[in-house]
Fold this sequence. Notes:
With 334 residues, the chain is mainly β. It has two helices and 18 strands.
Amino acid sequence: MQLKSLLITLSSCLLTAATASAQSSWHVGFGVNAGPATGEAFKYTLGGDIRAEKMFSNRVTGTLSAGFTHFFEKDHFRSYSQYGSPYNVIPVKAGVKYFAGRQFYLAGELGAGFAFEQWGTSFLWSPSVGFAFNNGLDLSLRYEDFTKSPATKAVSLRLGYNVDARKLAFHAKNDATTGWQLEMGLLYGQTLTGIQGGVLGAEVSLNKHLARNLEALVTTGYSHYFTQSYSYYWGDIKSLGGSINYASNGITIRKAAQNIIPLRAGIRAYAGNRLYAGAEAGAAIGINGPTSVVLAPSLGLNFNHINVSARYDYFKSDYQPDVLSLRLGYKFNL
């Protein structure tokens, strides 16, 4: 639960830092990144982040960011004691951008990576080069080194979008409605615990503003967890010092597809008209599996009727894997 609480706390801290000085040259950036891992254990990475930036001069900008990164495994590990375990990490970094020109910059960041399962916490450093466009787009190439393991290093391309913090500052919502709204949503996610696999779902929720910056919602839907499998190769087990000897080339663990119906209630707290942090709690009813309590913090952007968000679903049952997902929704006034 510590990492789940940390994720909510970091989102709140970044939001507060970005909006507390709305009259200053603060910007808030949202980014996605992907690229190849440089070690033997992983193929590539995929992640996202939220970043607060403060301009100290025309050439120097300070940054503070937090996000989530998933390292996708290769078919199997070779000579690693963390055999069969994925690397999911929450990087928290502070850094500096130096603009060599009006738009081209060099950057460096230092921080910590808070990883799941047995990976633990790691020191993190990350140099990058980038280009900041006048329309708010930010494109950069970076190297990220989580120093605790030789396997957890990657080169990635980040595409971000920066907005003036004054547009996200806490103020009364101009487009708040006092009536009920119906929201339809689609989501795609990745399991983070147990054997890895994808998740596809559809949701419907009833939403109502309790105050101009506070929205309550009740949600249900349907989520499908695709069949997941993982192969262990005898040669690799032997190289790790194992004494197990199988007649075949290895064994395959296969986990059947699962289907759940979520029933949740929660709130969203808005910073202006767009950015919000949300939290939901309820039950995940297993159609062909166990039923579990579920807690779901989220961070999103609301563009009039269109809603884009990232959400972490934490399940109390050990038999239900946690999920990080991206969600696209559309609201209808009732």
